[in-house]
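[stage:ingest] chain + small molecule (xanthosine-5'-monophosphate)
[stage:ingest] validated
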Amino acid sequence: MDSVPIIVLDFGSQYTQLIARKLRESGVYCEIVPYNEKIEDIKARSPQGIILSGGPASVYAKDAYHPDSEIYELGLPMLGICYGMQLLTQHFGGVVVPSDHHEYGKAELEFGDECACQIFNDTPSGQIVWMSHGDRVDMLPDGFEKIARSENSPYAAIAHIEKNIYAFQFHPEVYHTQEGARLLKNFAKYICNVENTWNMGSFAKEQIEKIKEQVGDKKVLCGVSGGVDSSVVATLLHEAIGQEQLVAIFVDQGLLRANEREQVEAMFKRLEIDLITVDATEEFLTKLEGITDPEQKRKIIGETFITVFDREAKKHDGIEFLAQGTLYTDVIESVSVKGPSKTIKSHHNVGGLPDWMTFELIEPLREIFKDEVRKLGRELGLPKDMLGRHPFPGPGLAIRIMGEVTTNELRLLRESDTIMQEELKASGYYDKVWQAFAVVLNVKSVGVMGDNRTYDNTVCVRMVESVDGMTATFAHIPHDLLERMSTRIINEVDGINRVVYDITSKPPGTIEWE
Ligand code: XMP
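[stage:predict] done
[stage:export] tokens:
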């Protein structure tokens, strides 16, 4: 087994992957493993440090997650975050109690000269950190000392300096913790003595090697959507196994944006990767007839995708693998990555294949985020305009039509969306927002056009800013740009007489409407 400098044990926090991401940004390679990973498998990776993640449980709960207790005896540097801190406290003989009130949100982290440790190197006292916890440490174990406090948490950070064990009550991995990346880097660099040698180039090489090893001389079926993710996956595969072993399939499910099919085909021609387009429009639209429930739509589309792939695969000999551009964001909101995180929303094709399918999955992007995929794409030499493309969901326009998906609603959506994209690109805003799209609502309203009363459909325009799709804010778009979009959509799209702008952030909303 390859050596891994830092191992993160996942106790189910939604933020666990962000720990890995922050470390990667600092050039430190790490791997996330489930909290109950076998101790032999951990030792086999020769780690230089262990991080215990946060988690939703209480250490006192009957079904609380505990790692193999030998982990504490390895003599390795450790960092416990939130739940991880409580585990360390409990294990070494301290006391954890439920807080009088849950503490969520910002806090100021104060430390003076009391800490001679290096974990806070190059970061100021008074820095903002993000708290999210129910339980708290009430009494320190022997040998531990307080190294930082906040107004509500006297033990905001503690350490056993000699043993190189550190613990934070706050989450260094989340965006709102100002110096979080630096704190994690300090742990890796000064406490674990890990060199920062990791970068996207090495990630690309690693993935290519992994694919070669996994696939051998078999063939891989790769679902291509034209988006950044699946194009990066196809390119990685192409580099790893070449055209002979690669069957790249683009399914036109009838839920694409205007001209998208032609654009995707042209792009793959440029990449010199052979692409097989399957027109399954009728199959998808027939199955979606009469369906209005969002989860049902997603399920039907996911299942139909698989059916189409399976049918296509049978036309080629020797296919044993299915490659997908699944990202961490898709995974975390569907099933747990490696540990026990909670389910939020079901995304298609994520969470494994049905039993009757014999393919093994290849998902090289499963643990990284969109902006990291773009960096990877740059590393692989993909064209710039393609890397800048906004994300487009697998279920396509179906989840941007509220209610039943009909050919008329699809027309309304495509025409409105095209106008939006044109205006965005003309104004230079396309590259400034994370994602922008139209949604057709099942809401009719009265209007007046010329001398006539109208009673027509509503389009919502949605534009968001985000770094990774996990959280997002609605984009603060100039009103004259919104006005141009609205005027053009109402004038040019027959059947739309009202345009609204979505001013919801994520959370509490999601980016897509369904
Ligand atoms: P939500 O709506 O969950 O979206 O806030 C977060 C990001 O994921 C995209 N998305 C999907 N991507 N298959 C995908 O490949 C899906 O089923 C899916 N649903 C949402 C969404 O466009 C946004 O960028």
